[in-house]
Amino acid sequence: MRRTALAAFLIVALAARAEEARPLLPGGDFEGRESWGRPKGATYEAEGHNHFLRLHVPKSGDTVLVHRTVTLPEDVEALRLRYKVRFEKIERGKQAWFDGRIMMNFKDASGRKLEPSPSPPNFVGTSKHWDERTQVFRVPKGAKSLELMFTLFQAKAGRLDFDDVTLDAVPASDLHTPPPPTPAARIAAPAPDRLPPALHVEGKRLVDANGREAWLQGVAIPSLEWSAGGEHILESIAVATRDWKANCIRLPVRETFWAGNDFRQAGGPEAYRQLIDDAVNSCAGAGAYIVIDLHDYRAPEAKHAAFWREVAAKYKNHPAVLFDLFNEPHDVSWDVWRNGGTVTDRKKEGDGVAAENADKLVSFQSIGMQGLLDAVRETGARNVVIAGGLDWGYDLSGVLENYALKDSSGDGVMYSSHVYPWKRDWKRKFLDAAEKHPIFLGEVGADVKKMEFIPVAAQEDPATWAPDMLAAIQGHRLHWTAWAFHPGATPRVILDWNYTPTPFWGALVKRALAGERFPTGKPR
Questions:
Q1: Torsion of Cα atoms, 325 then 327 then 332 then 333, to 10°
Q2: Spatial contact of 407 and 373, defined as CB atoms under 8 Å apart
Q3: In 160-246, alpha helices (H)
Q4: For the ranges 41-45, 313-317, 399-403, which has the lowest average pLDDT?
Q5: Is it the case that residue 349 has pLDDT exceeding 50?
Q6: What's the pLDDT at 177?
Q7: Rounded to an integer, what distance in angstroms lies between the CA atom of residue 314 and that of residue 101?
């Protein structure tokens, strides 16, 4: 009897241990053929001996979704989701959340959704190498299951790969992990004698302390606005300043990544801030200027002022650094643009906006562009600031109608316009302003690929538009950074990460930066 009882006890104990060892999310290495089913748009791919899950958009706007429901152990406090991911050319759909993502919902015994749901990691653009990611989240009381959806959710295009997906129960103490150590600088600050001269606004010119006029010409290098790790940032700066002769780089950044509170970001803000610092040092060491662009839309809020107080304090009076206060204001009055006020929610008008700008409009209180400028100056930073106009950064007409910013304690304000082949009335929208103020075309470019959100008839062929645009830039001595020094952000200056110029825009940009003059063309 004793042997029988002992044997029964051992069987029960081993069964319990096997139950504990059973993975919550089996088959996450995808080595078992079709271990997660085969929904439309999903395939199982192999590279050598390794297998992985691939999602791809079969048709613009379609949803591809792989669904898993996990039964949770009793008394679980928190869960840890680990996975490898890579993605290519994911373009957002009509809403800001139409992209690649992992959506998760907790449910109780009756199938009712419980809050809070874990923040969904999302994926936009291109990240060609496998990236290991971890997310730890609390399990709400009463949760019996977790629903996971690996999806390309109504995205326009793209491909999304997953591998080695695991889900583990962890103690609540794992929710509070210490921030990672600040990474060491990859690029040291240059010696003072290598820095470019500090600039200030003098009438419609940008000059140094000796009165020598500066002409900022270069490229915009995106990705830090959608990726906390960026994509080829330092390599692109080196190529642009060395091989393309750019003396100015516009670097779009996101305030949520800077603060370290973006759900797409692993750890704190240290690595993100260090990369921006490396970019500043890279530009300054090459004798070039860098424009830090707060890449947001519609109208500035208090959170944007908080960002500028920190950034301005860090780069206060750095001779190579200029501040682009707010990327693309739109759909507000000129009074709200400058002075702030209530921004009321309403439907977007016209033919729509770019997919990356398809954020849902909401009502909020704006502090205005003057509020951002004042936030910079409160730190004692005199750096030249750049203020973008209305109509998604294009229209500067209000600057000449008593809505110019007041800057009594700094080195002055430049005004920015974003010019593309569907924009008309150059004279009234930005050339008239160039007669009184220095103008910075922070985004300018053309692509043979037509924009879906603009009527095709309104989009001019780059073959005629691009040389005329460059001639206007040169004729009026406008400061400019061509959009975009990234093969996945249209209009493209480069075709690939070998920095091959696009024939329709990049080749002309490279020639202009090398000093070639373009004959006067037709104004638009």
A1: 50
A2: yes
A3: 233-242
A4: 41-45
A5: no
A6: 53
A7: 34
Distance CA 139, CA 171 (A): 10
Distance in angstroms (rounded) separating the CA atoms of residues 44 and 107 = 29
DSSP 523: -
As given in the structure block, the two tokens for residue 220 are: 């915009």
First to last CA, the chain: 98
**Contacts of residue 276, Cβ cutoff 8 Å, sequence gap at least 6:** 224, 251, 253, 258, 292
Hunting for tokens 């048709």 — which residue is that?
A: 59
CB 200 within 8 A of CB 227: no
Read off the pTM.
Answer: 0.68
Q: How far is CA 508 from each of CA 138, 447, 462, 465, 472, rounded to the nearest angstrom?
A: 53, 12, 10, 11, 14
Tokens at 503, concatenated: 């024939």
pLDDT digits (tens, 9 = 90+) for 8-65: 444 444 444 434 446 898 999 998 867 787 778 899 999 988 999 999 998 998 999 9
Cα 33 to Cα 46, 49, 207, 291, 516, distances in angstroms: 11, 13, 65, 50, 58
For tokens 């613009």, the residue is: 60
How far is residue 420's CA from residue 472's CA, in Å, rounded to a whole number? 13
Backbone phi and psi for residue 5, each to the nearest 5 degrees, phi listed first: -65, -40
**For residues 144, 150, 152 and 158, what is the CA-based torsion angle, rounded to 10 degrees?**
170
Domains in the chain, CATH or no CATH each: 22-172 (2.60.120.260), 192-513 (3.20.20.80)
Residue 131, helix vs strand vs coil: strand
Residue with tokens 């294009």: 394
Q: Which residues of 383-415 are buried (b: 16+ CB within 10 A; e: fewer)?
A: bbbbbbbbbbbbbbbbbeeebbbebeebbbbbb
Helix/strand/coil (H, E, C) string of 343-411? Answer: ECCCCCCCCCCCHHHCCCCCCEEECHHHHHHHHHHHCCCCCCEEEEEHHHHCECHHHHCCCCCCCCCCC
Look at residue 520 and tell me whether its pLDDT is greater than 90: no
In whole angstroms, what is the distance from residue 234 CA to residue 240 CA?
Answer: 10
Integer CA distances (angstroms), 368 to 259, 336, 339, 363, 375, in order: 21, 6, 5, 14, 11
φ, ψ dihedrals at 483, nearest 5°: -100, 125
Alpha carbon distance 415, 439 (integer Å)? 5
| pLDDT, tens digit (0-9, with 9 covering 90-100), for 188-228 | 889 988 999 999 999 999 999 999 999 999 999 999 999 88
| Measured CA distances, 286 to 187, 239, 386 (Å) | 12, 11, 22
- DSSP designation for 494: B
Paired residues of 443 in beta bridges: 418
**Coil vs helix vs strand at 465:** helix
